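Researcher: Next entry in the queue.
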Amino acid sequence: MKQKSSLSVMLNGIIKENPVLVLILGTCPTLATTNTVNGAFGMGIAALAVLVCSNVFISLLRKVIPESMRIPCYIVIIAGFVTIVKMLVQAFMPSLYESLGVYLDLITVNCIILGRAEMFANKNTVVASALDGLGMGIGFTLALTLMSTIREVFGAASFAGNPIPFMENYKIEFLTKAPGGLLVYGLLIALIYVITRGKAPVKTSFSCEGCPHAASCTTVNCQREGAEN
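Model: Structure for this entry, 229 residues:
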């Protein structure tokens, strides 16, 4: 893969295909962990590590994993890396471990990680898969950090647990609660849509071309409808 293409693969996940603000994936940890900057950043880094490692490992084994057992194999691989990350966080950052709680375990079934395994790592080289995981992980971390900064600064008058005295009388506690998180999330999605409008890749046609199951597909009508659309 050429250097330009490699850079493009990594950058896609940051803005054009940001998993949280463009693809609207991983909303559960996004809303649950963004009430504090420390928690959001920690979740982002943990997910980034799992994304890169699982993408690389799945890409290495893509020709070995049976087609009918893809998803179970992906989950086992991802769960293994989540367990390693969880143990490291528990050992070296106990406060973050307590803060994230069950959401660390739920990285195993995070649709961002499973989605990249199925849509990218399963079809591309190790290097490309690592860059895709890195880009998606950075995009996820940036989105969570941005959202948590808004919620903590304006909702709790603090940043990363450090009080901001001049904001104390102007804080909007509503932003630290679940409805406030939904409001901030929606506004950020709208902002990113305006920024990327006309730039994000949009598919206008669908066909069986490129589908890994096209050769074994026996549904002629499905193939015909895909070609017509």
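Model: The first helix runs from residue 3 to 12.
Researcher: Noted, moving on.
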